[in-house]
Specification:
Layout lengths: L2 H39 L4 H7 L10 H17 L4 H12 L4 H4 L6 H17 L3 E7 L6 E5 L2 E13 L5 E12 L5 E9 L1 H6 L1
Antiparallel strand pairs: 1-3, 2-3, 3-4, 4-5
Helix pairs in contact: 3-4
Amino acid sequence: MDKMTKKILIVFVVVVAAALLIFIGVRAFQQKEAEEKGETSLPKTEVGKLLAKDLELEYPGTPTEVVKLFWRLNKCIYNTNMKENDRKALYRQLRLLYDDEFLAQKGNSEDEMYQSLKKDIKKFDEAKKFISSYIVQEDDQVKYAEVEGQEEATLVASVLETSKKSKTTESYAKYICRKDSKGRWKILGWQQVTAEEAEKQ
């Protein structure tokens, strides 16, 4: 191989190597840019995260998870200042957790429940209260039963509310969840209970 041929071969190898490095660099940059765009498009606020939830695709799998999401939504709705359309959208997410029988009860239409919710939030705000935390019984504490051929689950949640005077009150409620035709646990109803009754659950 003569000198000229060697030089041409060396130049060719260098050009190919340089082109390969440029291609790798461009691909790495594009991938990083895509990842950054994906991160920035993810909702950062609790309102945004809850609004982004698609409950048709990501419905909670257990009664405990359903009641936890119920209180996560309520905590956000009651504690956060937001646009009216966002609050209504969160309220609609909340309704997706309810059993059809519960929604069919008198006074539980979408509009009636929303108007009632707004009045309750107003009273809550006037009293300068906020939901500080909630605890839901874990899966191993849930009581299951078959009622009229349908699966039901009973569990207790406690909620801490703090007032303007930093006074904290704890309330307890027993929740009944029922499996629907798609196998999803829906909230059929709830009732307030005492701390003693909650301990017996």
